Amino acid sequence: MLSRTTMATLMSSKQTSVNVTASKIKHKNLNTSSFFKVSLKTNNKALALGLQAQKERSRQLEMEVVHLQKQVKALCFDLATKNYKHRKLLLIFKSLHSDTLQHLEMAADLLHDSPHSSGASSDRTGDAVAPRTESTGGLF
C-alpha cells in the first residue's frame, strides 16, 4: 500500500484543497454579504431621499390648498359685497323711477290746470299727455 509519507502528503494536500475551498466560500459569502449590505444601504438612502421629497411636495400642496382656500373666501366676500351693492343700486333706481314718474305727473297736473290757457293753446294742451291715474308702485 501507500507509505505513510505518501499518505501524509495526500492528506495534507487534501486538507489544503479543502481549506482553500472553504476560504473561497467564506470570501464569496463575505463579498456577497458585503454587496447586500452596500445594496441595502444605497436602497435605504434612496428611500429616505424619496420620502423627504414626498414630504416636501405634500407640504407645498398643503400650502397651496390653504392659499386657494383663502382666495375662495376673498372671492366669496367680493361677490357678496357686489351683490349687496347691486341690490342697493336697484332700490335706488326703482326709487328714482318712482319719484320721476310722480314728479312728471305733478308737472303735468300743473300745466293742465294752468289759468293762462287760451283757446289756441288749449288745443295744444289737448295733445299733451294726460295725467296718469295708475299707481306708481314705488317704495314710498
UniProtKB/TrEMBL annotation:
<feature type="region of interest" description="Disordered">
    <location>
        <begin position="112"/>
        <end position="140"/>
    </location>
</feature>
<keyword id="KW-0175">Coiled coil</keyword>
<keyword id="KW-0137">Centromere</keyword>
<dbReference type="GO" id="GO:0051301">
    <property type="term" value="P:cell division"/>
</dbReference>
<keyword id="KW-0158">Chromosome</keyword>
<comment type="similarity">
    <text>Belongs to the shugoshin family.</text>
</comment>
<dbReference type="GO" id="GO:0007059">
    <property type="term" value="P:chromosome segregation"/>
</dbReference>
<protein>
    <submittedName>
        <fullName>Shugoshin-like 2</fullName>
    </submittedName>
</protein>
<keyword id="KW-0132">Cell division</keyword>
<keyword id="KW-0131">Cell cycle</keyword>
<dbReference type="GO" id="GO:0000776">
    <property type="term" value="C:kinetochore"/>
</dbReference>
<dbReference type="InterPro" id="IPR038889">
    <property type="entry name" value="Shugoshin1/2"/>
</dbReference>
<keyword id="KW-0159">Chromosome partition</keyword>
<dbReference type="GO" id="GO:0051177">
    <property type="term" value="P:meiotic sister chromatid cohesion"/>
</dbReference>
